[in-house]
């Protein structure tokens, strides 16, 4: 019985791992636009990795949200949209 439960959990969890990762990408996009200062954005990024906000969002995507989207066709978290990118310091252009 334990093997059956473990197999079912792995099957349901593994089906969603290649989804759009909307929760993770939403947090990432928000972090890139919090401030015009790269230093502030980087400090926030590091802090959100120490307190595993990014890790929990990614785990939620892999185990819950992407799986829901796989089985139902709809993700409970809206798509984050394109990544806004990073700012470039003057002199860094190619």
Which helices and strands, and how do they pair?
Layout: H1 2-14, H2 22-33, H3 38-50, H4 53-72
Overview of this structure, please?
The structure is a single chain. The chain is elongated. The relative contact order is 0.21. With 94 residues, the chain is mainly alpha-helical. α2 packs across α4. The longest helix has 20 residues. The chain contains four helices and no strands. It has one domain.
Summarize this structure as a short list of keywords or feature phrases:
single chain; 94 residues; mainly alpha; 0% strand; elongated
Radius of gyration: 17 Å
pLDDT < 50 runs, ≥5 residues? none
- What is the 3D form? elongated
Largest sheet: none
Element-by-element helix/strand order: HHHH
Q: How many helix segments?
A: 4
Percent of residues in helices comes to 55-70%
How many structurally independent domains? 1
* Arithmetic mean pLDDT: 84
How much of the sequence is in beta strands?
Answer: under 5%
- How many β-strand stretches? 0
Distance between the ends: 60 Å
Q: What structural class do the secondary elements suggest?
A: mainly alpha
Question: How would you summarize this macromolecular structure in one to three sentences?
Answer:
By secondary structure, the protein is mainly alpha-helical.
């Amino acid at each position: 019985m334990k093997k059956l439960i473990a197999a079912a959990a792995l099957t349901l969890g593994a089906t969603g791992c290649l989804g759009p990762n909307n929760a993770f990408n939403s947090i990432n996009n928000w972090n890139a636009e919090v401030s015009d200062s790269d230093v502030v954005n980087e400090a926030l990024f590091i802090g959100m990795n120490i307190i595993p906000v990014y890790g929990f969002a990614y785990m939620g995507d892999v185990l819950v949200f992407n799986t829901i989207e796989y089985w139902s066709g709809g993700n409970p978290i809206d798509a984050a949209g394109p990544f806004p990118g990073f700012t470039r310091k003057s002199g860094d252009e190619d």
